């Protein structure tokens, strides 16, 4: 692949931080802008929604969470809580689970919840993989990944799409055997407008077909579907399951005020250095960013976060001591990054950010960064697939065919697929929060594709860039 070689560092510091918060969606407006950052034209509102928000399961519990919808299978709702309600409270105020109220109106989205009892009766065998003496982290050597059973063929749940929380479907999916149960799931996104919204579950993105596989290049990495998250707006999948964005339709403002435009990072993230060492990763406070990678980038953009979208969950790593078939020393997931800010806004204040924040026993902070910077247009440059060329760049062809149908073929560009690996302790409960947002403007869209979340038996050693990293796929 072209572009710079990238690595993710994971630091060893801090205490466990509870990342569970209430899922909600609020009232916003949208606009289209093609002139540059900071200029918006107000559009219209719409609160219609049919997609499935993540199911949240508390492992070991036998009762459903109050105020949320219980489902018995994909698409089956037993207590309807979806719909639109009108209320008059402060903007961005969260009430019951699945509800956010705005000053003028509220979109209520039911977060489907089914609780299951965790099965930890699996006996320990002598052939579980102890990979501490090897650097090979392939899925084939990890029984936890090898036995993973996708569940998104008949589900539009956001977590199911990336390989999580399949135990809410019951039946053949068993926690820490062939599936992963999450707890305290939260999903925060501005409500849909004009038939579009900041996230979609789809079989693929764009129209480019990989000639080597005869399958969509931006398609599923496990199972049938992927999760798309964006600081802009995404149309619903077409009848074939593909999200296709018209060329140039990547300049959207999805929110005016409220929690989506507040000048704070999505909780539990902070833009404060968590380590007294300028290089990060030592003597961390367990609350702020142990990597010390976000603060400078946040300041560069004036702390002006716009069009935020985020989701998070808690999960317990499998452990042989708890009766699972292997120890999970880490996790992996696949992602790709698209932005309309490539290439003209590289090295400027307009530097959209994609962050994955871990709160665990040994580490609290950003776990996705390159050369001391979070995943931004500046840090990721140069990229694999350029739609738009730098001024007078004789080596750039532009309009890369891989970007067909993504909206970015003439504005911006994209990285290739990457696999991120993080480290945890077997048996510990930790939280992960994924967030994407504009910095310094609210018009130039940035989109990420997520898929293939999996346990990793080998994991990685914090602070060692050769062990923790982002590998091109």
From TrEMBL:
Biased composition (Polar residues): 42-59
Sequence ranges of Low complexity compositional bias: 28-41, 60-135
Positions of region (Disordered): 24-141
Superkingdom to which the source organism belongs: Bacteria
Entry-linked InterPro entries: Choice_anch_L
Transmembrane residue ranges: none
Protein name: Choice-of-anchor L domain-containing protein
Native source species: Nannocystis pusilla
């Amino acid at each position: 692949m072209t572009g710079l070689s990238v690595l993710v560092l994971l630091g060893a510091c801090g205490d466990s931080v509870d990342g569970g918060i209430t899922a909600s969606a609020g009232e916003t407006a949208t606009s289209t802008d093609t002139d540059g950052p900071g200029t918006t034209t107000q559009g219209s509102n719409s609160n219609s929604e049919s997609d499935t928000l993540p199911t949240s399961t508390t492992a070991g519990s036998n009762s459903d969470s109050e105020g949320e919808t219980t489902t018995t299978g994909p698409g089956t709702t037993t207590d309807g809580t979806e719909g639109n309600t009108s209320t008059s409270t402060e903007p961005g105020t969260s009430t019951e689970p699945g509800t956010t109220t705005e000053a003028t109106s509220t979109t209520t989205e039911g977060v489907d919840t089914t609780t299951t009892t965790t099965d930890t009766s699996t006996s320990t065998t002598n052939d579980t993989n102890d990979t501490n003496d090897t650097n090979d982290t392939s899925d084939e050597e990890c029984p936890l990944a090898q036995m993973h059973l996708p569940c998104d063929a008949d589900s539009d749940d956001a977590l199911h799409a990336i390989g999580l929380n399949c135990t809410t479907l019951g039946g053949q999916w068993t926690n820490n055997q062939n599936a992963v149960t999450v707890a305290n799931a939260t999903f925060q996104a501005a409500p849909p407008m004009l038939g579009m919204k900041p996230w979609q579950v789809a079989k693929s993105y764009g129209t480019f077909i990989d000639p080597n596989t005869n399958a969509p290049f931006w398609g599923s990495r496990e199972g049938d579907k992927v999760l798309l998250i964006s600081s802009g707006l995404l149309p619903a999948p077409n009848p074939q399951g593909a999200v296709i964005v018209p060329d140039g339709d990547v300049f959207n403002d999805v929110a005016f005020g409220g929690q989506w435009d507040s000048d704070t990072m999505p909780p539990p993230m902070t833009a404060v250095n968590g380590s007294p060492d300028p290089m990060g990763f030592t003597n961390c406070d367990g609350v702020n960013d142990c990597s010390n990678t976000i603060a400078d980038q946040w300041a560069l953009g004036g702390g002006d976060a716009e069009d935020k979208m985020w989701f998070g969950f808690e999960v317990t790593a499998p452990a042989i001591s708890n009766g699972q078939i292997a120890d999970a020393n880490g996790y992996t997931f696949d992602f790709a990054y698209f932005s309309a800010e490539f290439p003209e806004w590289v090295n400027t204040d307009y530097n959209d950010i994609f962050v994955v924040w871990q709160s665990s026993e040994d580490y609290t902070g950003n776990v996705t960064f390159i050369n001391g910077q979070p995943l931004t247009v500046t840090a990721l440059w140069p990229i694999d697939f350029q739609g738009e060329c730098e001024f007078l760049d004789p080596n750039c062809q532009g309009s890369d065919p891989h970007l067909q149908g993504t909206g970015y073929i003439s504005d911006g560009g994209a990285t290739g697929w990457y696999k991120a690996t993080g480290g945890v302790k077997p048996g510990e409960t930790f939280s992960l929060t994924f967030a994407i947002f504009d910095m310094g403007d609210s018009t130039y869209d940035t989109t990420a594709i997520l898929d293939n979340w999996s346990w990793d038996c080998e994991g990685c050693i914090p602070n060692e860039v050769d062990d923790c990293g982002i590998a091109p796929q």
